[in-house]
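look at this record:
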Amino acid sequence: MKMLSVRDRRDRPPEEGVVAELQGFAVDKAFFTSHKGILLETELYYQHFNRLNWPCLDFLRCVSAIIIFLVVSFAAVTSRDGAAIAAFVFGIILVSVFAYDAFKIYRTEMAPGAIQGECPCSVERRCPPQP
């Protein structure tokens, strides 16, 4: 389906009804087969990939970010420049944020004692009733 430009719509006689209202929302089917379209589809429909362990992938993302920021932070602080020290501090803050995120992911999603049907909530919160 061809996307209409403003000039094409201006030169055509006005249409009436629902078709005229929805004309601006025309879908370009070629977009869905492009690289960007495929990437957006996988971002929107990640629930359909149920063979992937999403909590594990999220945990590995955090761990890899921790490693990268630690290496870059310590590499930046070797120059002893003012901006390098600020980069080191910022990197250490990011490492702590990612470490906390990895800890929370592990504790809530990947805890070794978690059994199917058992509520992974902390002791302070009440678990919802199981059906």
